[in-house]
Design goal:
Layout lengths: L2 H17 L13 H8 L4 E5 L2 E7 L7 E7 L4 E6 L3 H4 L9 H8 L8 E3 L4 E9 L5 E9 L5 E8 L14
Antiparallel strand pairs: 1-2, 2-3, 3-4, 5-6, 6-7, 7-8
Length: 171
């Protein structure tokens, strides 16, 4: 194999890996759970309910997406969506939702950014996101340490180490 073949093979491999990032080839109503696993890999979290299954695919810490795949009882894709969006964040209900509800809504946080503040008895989960202005930001959910119920949420820009303004990101 010459160097051109090696380079072209590497490029093709990289492009095929990128295509699976967001589940691009999957089609609602057509694609099966086996095809989802083949394209997106093993989900990090799964849930089963009367409607079917829900699979979470976080793409962090460098990525700014978490994809949820909803499967019907027949094992076919109902929908696939990026859930790290303002519309999903707005569905989190402080004083009502707990950790399980947040996980099902926006997926798992980035573990090294999970922090417990003893003085406030507060657990904080954070996600890296691309905000509505296509700037890198972090979204946080604060839980009461005793009840595990959402106390509040917040969003803050992620400063660049070079100029202290948030870098651009792709949605």
């Amino acid at each position: 194999m010459n160097w051109r073949s090696t380079v072209l093979s590497g490029v093709a491999l990289c492009l095929s890996a990128c295509a699976a990032y967001d589940g691009y080839p999957l089609k609602p109503g057509v694609s099966t759970q086996d095809e989802v696993r083949a394209v997106m890999g093993v989900p990090s979290l799964t849930w089963q309910d009367e409607a079917g299954q829900q699979w979470a695919y976080p793409r962090g810490p460098a990525g700014v997406h978490t994809y949820m795949v909803h499967l019907g009882q027949d094992g076919r894709v109902l929908r696939l969506e990026n859930v790290l969006t303002s519309a999903h964040f707005a569905r989190i209900r402080p004083g009502v939702d707990g950790q399980e509800a947040v996980l099902r809504l926006i997926g798992p946080p980035f573990p090294p950014w999970t922090t417990y503040f003893k003085a406030r008895d507060e657990l904080v989960w954070e996600w890296r996101i691309c905000d509505d202005w296509s700037k890198l930001a972090r979204f946080g959910v604060l839980f009461d340490g005793t009840t595990g119920i959402v106390r509040s949420t917040y969003q803050r820009p992620e400063p660049s180490p070079w100029n202290h303004s948030p870098p651009w990101c792709g949605r």
